[in-house]
Amino acid sequence: MTALVLPPFVRLGGGALNDLPEALQQAGLKAPFIITDPFMASGGVLERVRGILEQAGYAMRAFTETVPDPTVACVNAALAMLRDGQHDCVIGLGGGSPIDTAKMVAVLARHDTTPSGLKVPHIQNTPGLPVIAIPTTAGTGSEATRVTVITDEVSDEKMLCMGPAYQPHIAIVDYELTLTMPRRLTADTGTDALTHALEAWVSKKASPFTDALALTAMQRIWRWLPVACEEPGNREARAAVMQGAFEAGMAFSNASVALVHGMSRPIGAHFHVPHGLSNAMLLPEITAWSLSGAPERYAMAARMMGIAEAGASDDAAGEALVEGLRRRNREIGVPTPKEHGLDVARWDNLLPLMAEQALASGSPANNPRVPTAQ
Ligand code: NAD
């Protein structure tokens, strides 16, 4: 038996944002609270959403101070503002950070607890307020997942929180919102999505349903991400990467991520490396280390993405995959941790703690080759 959690209402494609009022009406929602970030607030996107809502008779209040890798303080500030008004749903507008904040705020609005009380191994089943996710990056897939990630800024821990309660009720997946992404953000967020697809494909929890999503997502993202990086206005590329990120989100939400994400979260929390970038730094080397755990799966991924010849042996295809991932990192300019300026002495000191935090999230246990802390 395969148990799945999927977004119930989806609007996918260019211009989907204009359908927001209709989606709210269909769901019987009347009083949205928006959670977004300063870029969306100053760059015109929030104003556009306000216009669309007001024209349809909706009033709108917005929290605009979400920080990247949202913290407990950020969640508490948004929650206090929500409680100051009368709202029946929460809209997350932006990248993964505003959407994850919206998910946590929506749950806390209905449950007397804290983000740290909700981290894995806790599983949150009982929903909070309905969430409408409107992604503006093509990466996290948060609009499609039963996951939120909140950083405890005191302990520098990126807390993984999971359960059906975090599944957005409505996902508005409009690639036109990603046309403004600069190259670095496009590359990092797109590699986050590629990592979701590859990790869902090789995960010990993969199912035939998630396999289909993971494979189509990795093909789309592998082909179109370099085009989106080089030609930011290329609509075909933006649409493909956005759809790939959404498919990869559904895949990993139901199959889990694995070792790359397990290790990436502590790096993000302690060194504030953007999430997609730390995934990109890890992906080729973790893939090389993991190959022996699922040689056929990695080989098939390489063949499906066109990185290896159809007739290549599993060993040759696996090696081609690792080389392809290394080459892609060079093409899209992914720095090594050292080139990125990470403090090497601090890194060495924190390694045992980061290993412990990676394992505690549960993600590495789903890797085809399961690591020890060592
Ligand atoms: P983000 O939301 O942190 O945004 C990064 C920056 O990009 C911000 O400054 C933002 O304003 C800017 N930005 C967003 N959209 C833009 C656009 N269209 N044009 C120009 N700039 C834009 O980045 P992210 O990578 O989308 O999200 C990362 C967060 O998501 C991390 O905290 C990560 O842990 C989390 N995450 C969550 C899930 C999940 O399933 N819930 C999955 C993966 C990652």
Write the layout of secondary structure elements.
Elements: E1 9-12, H1 20-26, E2 32-35, H2 38-42, H3 45-55, E3 61-63, H4 72-83, E4 89-94, H5 96-108, E5 131-135, E6 147-152, E7 157-162, E8 170-173, H6 183-202, H7 208-230, H8 235-255, H9 259-271, H10 275-290, H11 295-304, H12 314-331, H13 344-360
Parallel strand pairs: 1-8, 2-3, 2-4, 4-5, 5-8
Antiparallel strand pairs: 6-7
Describe the structure.
- The protein is an alpha/beta fold and about 375 residues long.
- It folds into 2 domains: about 10-175, Rossmann fold; about 180-365, Up-down Bundle (Dehydroquinate synthase-like, alpha domain), CATH 1.20.1090.
- The protein contains 13 helices and 8 strands.
- It has helices spanning about 20-25, 40, 45-55, 70-85, 95-110, 185-200, 210-230, 235-255, 260-270, 275-290, 295-305, 315-330, 345-360; strands at about 10, 30-35, 60-65, 90-95, 130-135, 145-150, 155-160, 170-175.
- Helix 9 runs antiparallel to helix 10 and helix 11 crosses helix 12 (about 315-330).
- About 55% of the residues are buried.
- The model has no long low-confidence stretch (mean pLDDT about 95).
- The site of nicotinamide-adenine-dinucleotide has 28 residues, from helix 5, strand 6, helix 6 and helix 10.
